[in-house]
Design goal:
The protein has one domain: Jelly Rolls (Sandwich), CATH 2.60.120.10. It is about 15% helix and about 40% strand. The protein is globular, with a radius of gyration of 20 Å. Bound molecules: manganese (II) ion (MN). The site of manganese (II) ion (MN) has 6 residues, from strand 10.
Length: about 160
């Protein structure tokens, strides 16, 4: 086999592996609906949130990456309940102005471009500010179990 034939063969192998990866990997299209980067997804109907919020699941946890990744869009005033993550969470703010608060600490403003690290097992909440929506990507460790949901964030706590 000459050099050219080997190159063509290698090229074939490489493009075959790329195709394989696309077929078996989880891929989310960037063709959005009405949000900046990811589609808004489905309206959240469980009672772990106050106000209207939407979730677009991007990556499910599996044996290779034990984290789930999802984009959440909070309409103004919407927020999660107090909750904690057994393996922690990272929040990447994509758009708008939101709030983040850990139990016992003042809430702080999170805005587009901010990244927040929530320590494992620390009760906290996150959501939009009263007048501006908030879009976040949450990267949540799943290796130590599911999110633990606690009480709702009262209006007093939210406005404090
Ligand atoms: Mn959280």
């Amino acid at each position: 086999m000459n050099c050219k034939a080997i190159s063509i063969l290698l090229l074939g192998v490489v493009s075959f592996s790329c195709n394989q990866q696309q077929e078996t990997g989880q891929h989310t299209s960037l063709k959005g609906e009405d949000t900046l980067i990811f589609p808004r997804g489905e309206k959240i109907t469980n009672n772990n949130f106050t106000g209207a919020a939407w979730l677009k699941g991007l990556i499910d946890a599996d044996s290779v990456n034990q984290t789930s990744v999802g984009s959440v869009t909070f309409e103004p005033g919407a927020r999660t309940k107090w909750h904690s993550h057994p393996a922690g969470q990272i929040i990447l703010a994509l758009d708008g102005i939101g709030y983040y608060q850990e139990k016992g600490s003042p809430k702080f403003i999170v805005k587009k471009g901010d990244a927040v690290k929530c320590p494992p097992d620390v009760p906290h909440w996150h959501g939009a500010s009263p007048d501006t929506k908030f879009v976040q990507v949450a990267v949540t460790g799943r290796e130590k179990g599911e999110t633990v949901w606690l009480d709702a964030v009262t209006d007093e706590e939210y406005n404090n």
